[in-house]
């Protein structure tokens, strides 16, 4: 048996083991096979609910990567989920589908709007101040901004991509892109051209759909992989790069980074500021580790989290618990981490499963994870997409996180 066959066999066996144990580990698992893989996923903030319905309807944002075999599309989808988690009976686990919570055919993911897009959708994010405005990261360099209300539900057959605004400036593609949570209409993006660029779409003039950046931030010496706005300081953001450095910036001075540190010994793929701890951020790297940082002293990392077996690709803090974040990796796993558990004593048996801060590991995918997103309305519920065309919506069993949350001070992590 050659190496590829052995690898496929191992993945298949791991997936079978996951399905066997899933009824005990999850309150919800829904799996949907897309026609093409999505490189991006996000829950919209709104929820539709009627008193006479036993379910709520959630909107999802995804895209396509057709490798240019077919027209690429930006998709908005609907999913119906039970109102009460206790409506989901683990005993009703559908082993063939690997699902818990598939109480009827009506709760399958349904594409309700598709918009033509030039090339694969590397990343798509809605404007938090106006979710009808959706920015997409393209393979060519420009960022597109679509007003979904100005597009029909079905894509035009001519395949023409017609964004309302084209954010010009980048000379390479990228993935990192984020709207400011504090300053309406401000957006940052990262690129293989080694820069971070910053636009304010309030400056858009209808005479032309092209908008040039407010600022260009130069300093990295290799591709910039990701950026993160600070959650409480509107002028502060962080960037990470294949040059192995973490930079923090102040938008009021684009000439140089405010701080910088060699943060890993390999490419850095992702960065995320804590939404509740103003001095805390995390970085994820091709060195398979996640690092915790205190902005007041970047000369020494607070803690190193080890648990993934391949590149760490995505990081996102939970909107439900201030000490919890999720990570995704090329190892086909999504992990939940609780930094309040760092340093807890473990039995040798527990230590074999991972460090004390490892709260949960999702093993439902059979290929590399492309993106992850927390639901803001459903506690401890995530969406994850992977290269095998699968999108999964899942929530660990509530007994895994129902314990009283422990507040944490950054000093305790040192």
Descriptive notes:
InterPro entries: Histone-bd_RBBP4-like_N, WD40/YVTN_repeat-like_dom_sf, WD40_PAC1, WD40_repeat_CS, WD40_repeat_dom_sf, WD40_rpt, WD_repeat_RBAP46/RBAP48/MSI1. Residues 13-83 form the Histone-binding protein RBBP4-like N-terminal domain. The protein is mainly β and 414 residues long. The chain has one domain (3-397): Methylamine Dehydrogenase, Chain H (7 Propeller), CATH 2.130.10.10. β11 and β12 form a beta hairpin. The longest helix has 23 residues, at 3-25. It has two helices and 29 strands. The chain has a five-stranded mixed beta sheet with strand order 6-7-8-9-13, with no helix packed on it. A four-stranded antiparallel beta sheet has the order 1-29-28-27. A four-stranded antiparallel beta sheet has the order 2-3-4-5, with no helix packed on it.
Based on secondary structure, the structural category is: mainly beta
State the separation between the terminal residues, measured CA to CA. 47 Å
* Arithmetic mean pLDDT: 92
Main-sheet strand order equals: 6-7-8-9-13
> pLDDT under 50 segments (min length 5)?
none
Q: Can you count the beta strands?
A: 29
Largest β-sheet summary: 5 strands, mixed
Q: What's the CATH superfamily, by name?
A: YVTN repeat-like/Quinoprotein amine dehydrogenase
Give the count of helical stretches.
Answer: 2
Domain tally:
1
CATH fold-level assignment? Methylamine Dehydrogenase, Chain H
**Helical proportion?**
under 10%
Determine the strand fraction and express it as a percent band.
35-45%
| Overall radius of gyration | 21 Å
CATH architecture, by name, is 7 Propeller
Global morphology = globular
InterPro entries: Histone-bd_RBBP4-like_N, WD40/YVTN_repeat-like_dom_sf, WD40_PAC1, WD40_repeat_CS, WD40_repeat_dom_sf, WD40_rpt, WD_repeat_RBAP46/RBAP48/MSI1
Subcellular location: Nucleus
Keywords: Chromatin regulator, Nucleus, Repeat, WD repeat
GO cellular component, one term: nucleus
């Amino acid at each position: 048996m050659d190496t590829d066959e052995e690898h496929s066999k191992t993945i298949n066996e791991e997936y079978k083991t996951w399905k066997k144990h899933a009824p005990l580990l999850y309150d919800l698992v829904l799996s949907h096979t897309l026609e093409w893989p999505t490189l991006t996923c996000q829950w919209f903030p709104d929820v539709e609910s009627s008193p006479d319905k036993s379910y709520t309807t959630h909107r999802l944002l995804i895209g396509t990567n057709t490798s240019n075999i077919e027209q690429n599309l930006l998709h908005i989808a609907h999913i119906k989920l039970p109102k009460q988690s206790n409506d989901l009976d683990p005993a009703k686990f559908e082993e063939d589908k690997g699902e818990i919570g598939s109480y009827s055919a009506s709760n399958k993911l349904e594409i309700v709007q598709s918009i033509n897009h030039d090339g694969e959708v590397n990343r798509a994010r809605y404007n938090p101040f106006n979710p009808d405005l959706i920015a997409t990261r393209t393979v060519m360099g420009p960022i597109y901004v679509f007003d979904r209300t100005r597009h029909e539900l079905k894509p035009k057959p001519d395949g023409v991509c017609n964004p309302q605004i084209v954010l010009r400036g980048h000379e390479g593609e990228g993935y990192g892109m984020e709207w400011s949570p504090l300053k309406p209409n401000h957006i940052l993006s990262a690129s293989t051209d080694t820069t971070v660029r910053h636009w304010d779409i309030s400056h858009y003039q209808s005479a032309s759909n092209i908008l040039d950046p407010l600022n260009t931030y130069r300093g990295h010496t290799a591709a910039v992989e990701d950026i993160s706005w600070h959650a409480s300081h509107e002028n502060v953001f962080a960037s990470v790069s294949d040059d192995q450095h973490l930079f923090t910036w102040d938008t009021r001075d684009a000439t140089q980074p405010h701080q910088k540190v060699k943060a890993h010994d390999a490419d850095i793929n992702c960065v995320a500021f804590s939404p509740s701890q103003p001095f805390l951020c995390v970085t994820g790297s091709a060195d398979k580790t996640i690092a915790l940082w205190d902005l007041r002293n970047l000369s020494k990392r607070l803690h190193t989290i080890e648990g993934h077996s391949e590149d760490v690709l995505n990081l996102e803090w939970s909107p439900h618990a201030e000490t919890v974040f999720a990570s995704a990796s090329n190892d086909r796993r999504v992990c939940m981490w609780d930094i309040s558990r760092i340093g807890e004593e473990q039995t040798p048996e527990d230590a074999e499963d991972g460090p004390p801060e490892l709260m949960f590991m999702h093993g439902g995918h059979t290929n590399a994870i492309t993106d992850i997103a927390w639901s803001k309305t459903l506690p401890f519920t995530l969406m994850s997409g992977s290269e095998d065309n699968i999108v999964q919506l899942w929530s660990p069993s509530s007994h895994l996180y129902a314990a009283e949350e422990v507040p944490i001070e950054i000093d305790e992590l040192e």
